[in-house]
Amino acid sequence: MRKKIVAGNWKMNCNLEETKSLLEEIKTESSTLNNDVQLIVSPSFTNISTAVESLKNTNIKVAAQNVHPEEKGAFTGEISVDMLASVGVKTVILGHSERRKYFGETKPILNKKVNTALRHEFDVIFCVGESLEEREKNNHFKVIEEQLDKSLFYIKKETWSKMIIAYEPVWAIGTGKTASAAQAQEMHSFIRELIAQKYDQKTADELSILYGGSVKPENSAEIFAQKDVDGGLIGGAALNAKSFIAIANSF
Q1: What are the tens digits of pLDDT across the range 78-94?
Q2: Which residues are marked as active site?
């Protein structure tokens, strides 16, 4: 049975005191969870140890927002898998459109990052998504297939148990626009079918596929009700504990 997952990508938000406060609020609000959803939070690197310590007696996981493809070396300002593992983090978000757009992360770079993370037995939340221009030109399926093909379709079948796919249409991230529930289902179904074709149906059926892009309590229930939507990768709404948990209660 696929896992239901609601992950909060905090991006470049929350200083130390704000992080502590938000984590405490999330712990308090999570007592109202009425389902078996897996919660994940992804604070900044400077506060990631604080998050691990704060959540150590809970079922809430901590994810990193990025990791370097090399294991160590002269890479000023970067973070390695070993550094993350040493503070108790074993989940990482890779392929986010902001990393692709602002930091030049190409498909080959992401391929290396995924390989390094999986080699060290990390869980990987891998983001895919098309721009508004690509959707309007009806190229959105081609774009998603290429993103998966160039970065993920080399990995062994057994390692897919460590993968989570997050479909985030770029045109819906932080814009207030949201893909309709039907659009989300259409793309999630397409992704699952690609996995089935490349590997097998069992691998595809066991893969959690999340939707991200202006998800909030007002629209999450309709989106999560879709057959192939297994949760969400949440941005702005994850910075409010009540909203974050309300979304998690939308299943």
Answers
A1: 999 999 999 999 999 99
A2: 96, 168
